[in-house]
Amino acid sequence: MSEQDEQDRALFLVVTIKPRQDRLEEAEAQLQSMRRHTLTEPGCVFMHLTQPQDDPDSWVMLEMFRSRAAWDEHMLQPYNTEGNAILEGLLREPSELRLLDEK
What we know:
The chain is of the alpha+beta class. The protein contains four helices and four strands; from the N terminus they run αβαββααβ. It has a single domain, classed as 2-Layer Sandwich (Alpha-Beta Plaits).
């Protein structure tokens, strides 16, 4: 597959988020704000903040972007860069990000 084909394929993301227990409301409010902005981006197909049934202390953000380029553009948005900086103090550890390709 060519590099251009890879850039044009949909990109899926699974982000595991571990909020501080004493900052849950702030962390969720920040994530929901970032999500609302992201959903207005033409390259965002979906973004859902979910709660794993088997891990009540973590959240998982499920995301799909039209392409890697769309996600790269998303990562440059001020509400994302500034939001991630705010989140640093609201999380127990850095989020785990997994990028996935559709088969």
